[in-house]
Amino acid sequence: MIHVLFFAQLREQLQTDQVQVSIDTPCTVQDIQDWMLTQHPEWKDVIEGRPLMAAVNQNMVSSDATVNDSDEVAFFPPVTGG
C-alpha cells in the first residue's frame, strides 16, 4: 500500500488530504496519478492539465521516479515566492 498525501490548494480542490493506493509495485509517480484518475475521475480537472510537484519519502522527484510498496508520495502545486 502506498500512502499518498495532498498539500496546499490541491488538498482543498480534491477535498481530501490523503488516499491509500493499492497498485502493483514498483511503479512510477505517473502510474500513481493515472491510478488516482481511474479511481477518482472527478479529479481529472484538478490533476490533469496543471503542473504538479511530487516527493517520494520527502525527496523531490520527477514523474518517472520509482515508487515501492509502503512509500509515501506527496503531491502539491508549484510554489512561488518573492
Topology:
Layout: E1 2-6, H1 8-14, E2 18-21, E3 27-28, H2 29-39, H3 44-47, E4 53-56, E5 59-61, E6 66-67, E7 72-76
Parallel strand pairs: 1-7
Antiparallel strand pairs: 1-2, 3-6, 4-5, 4-7
Supply the CATH class.
Alpha Beta
Low-confidence stretches: none
Give the termini distance in whole angstroms: 38 Å
The amount of beta strand, in percent, is 25-35%
Rg over CA atoms, rounded to whole Å, is 12 Å
Shape: globular
How many DSSP-defined strands?
A: 7
CATH homologous superfamily designation = Beta-grasp domain
State the secondary-structure class.
alpha+beta
Can you give a write-up of this model?
This protein has helices at 8-14, 29-39, 44-47, and strands at residues 2-6, 18-21, 27-28, 53-56, 59-61, 66-67, 72-76. With 82 residues, the chain is α+β, with helices and mostly antiparallel strands. The chain has one domain (2-76): Beta-grasp domain (Ubiquitin-like (UB roll)). A 5-stranded mixed sheet has the order 2-1-7-4-5. Strands 3-6 form a two-stranded antiparallel sheet. Strand 4 (53-56) and strand 5 form a beta hairpin. The mean pLDDT is 93.
